[in-house]
TrEMBL record:
Pfam families: Branch_AA_trans (PF05525). Belongs to the branched chain amino acid transporter family. This is Branched-chain amino acid transport system carrier protein. InterPro entries: Brnchd-chn_aa_trnsp_Livcs. It is a multi-pass membrane protein. Keywords: Amino-acid transport, Cell membrane, Membrane, Transmembrane, Transmembrane helix, Transport. The keyword Transmembrane helix applies. The chain crosses the membrane at residues 7-27, 39-58, 79-97, 117-134, 146-166, 186-208, 220-244, 273-294, 306-327, 333-354, 361-383, 403-423. Component of the transport system for branched-chain amino acids. It is found in: Cell membrane.
Amino acid sequence: MQKKTKDIFIIGFALFAMFFGAGNLIFPPALGQKAGTDLIGAIFGFLLTGVGLPLMGIMAVSKFGGNLELLASKANKKFATILSIVVILSLGPLLAIPRTSATTYEMAIVPFFPNMNSLLFSAIYFSIVLFFVLKSSSIIDSIGKVLTPVLLITLLSIIAKGIFSPQGAIANTGLGVSFASGFGEGYQTMDALGATVIGSIIVASIKAKGYTESKEVSKITVQAGIVAAAGLAIVYGGLAYLGATAGNLSMDLSRPELIITITAGLLGTFGKILLGISVGMACLTTSIGLTATAGEYFSNLSKGRVSFQTVSIITALISMVISNAGVDKITSLAVPLLVVVYPIIIVLVVLALLDRFIKNNIVYTGTVLVTLVISLFEALGNFNVSIPMINNTLKSLPLASQGFGWVVPALVVGLSIHLYVTVNQRQSKGRLIKRLALIKTIIK
């Protein structure tokens, strides 16, 4: 295998592992159980948002050197810095990283060691995270060569058993709107958010391998993203199928309970052990990637006054403390923040992919602004802050009931500004041509 191809696969496997957190493990089986015979439509919807959006995120930030702040500065520089800090903190020590430890504890440790102290476990967990992170030059290789194969083997073993020895027949659940249901579940993985910040360490890893030309770095990043997306699609499809063949199980089971019950039914105690390994690897690889990203970002923000190693250690310590609050508490704290941030990230990703058609950065500014305003008011609703006139207006927006009330206004504002700028530039160009022709005539 050529060096470049090998590098693409190693980086792609690392990306897969960093995207595939434990949340991604528990969503597809629940979707499959709910969809039943409507599985194909549900999977398609899930892949669109659970795989398509992260891939678009990687492609978007690769055009800006893997730098979210550089991308967001197309809207406003101060806003870009604030957004980047909020995103890094959300995916870092305040929410996502602590949740990986809490999830591992609840799904992979408690079933086997119910008396294990959570604080002791989190100390061990983050010691392992720091072991890989502080070897910063080989983070991607460590994940891509060592951790991802373990994760993939365990997941594929469970899926293969479920395909060749299904627990039951796929039933008609009467879901009906399977695509919409899958679309919403994929949206909840929030991987597009991670894609915009993980890109920085992916780009750094590619450059460390000797690829320095910006176009080549961008191309390799996208190719690695495609490898990761293919892996995610295969695993998501397999896990959703397991859920669809488990229609005999109670629909009242929580997502974690469902995947634990399915695995135990397929492989008994050995299945529980495999699931524990899968959860541990999925959470660990995600935590390593996010801790390294936080370390790099805040070290750069301080202009090197605080080292990567110091920031990484502080991130791990804060995450360790917060992780002991438990998965449910951490998840509930994340919702209002993500209601605001996630739509903005999606808008920036779409605009970045269309950047060559955008004539003026005011398109970014206007589109992001209207998205921010709508998302802020929706977030206030999570705190039961009611402003009747505004709330009624928001509820009347298309797709508002599905949580996508910002989509149509952002589309309308973005297109309107783009058309205005385009027409105005053409008129200005026309006037300039007429003036030059008049000057030529006078000179003659």
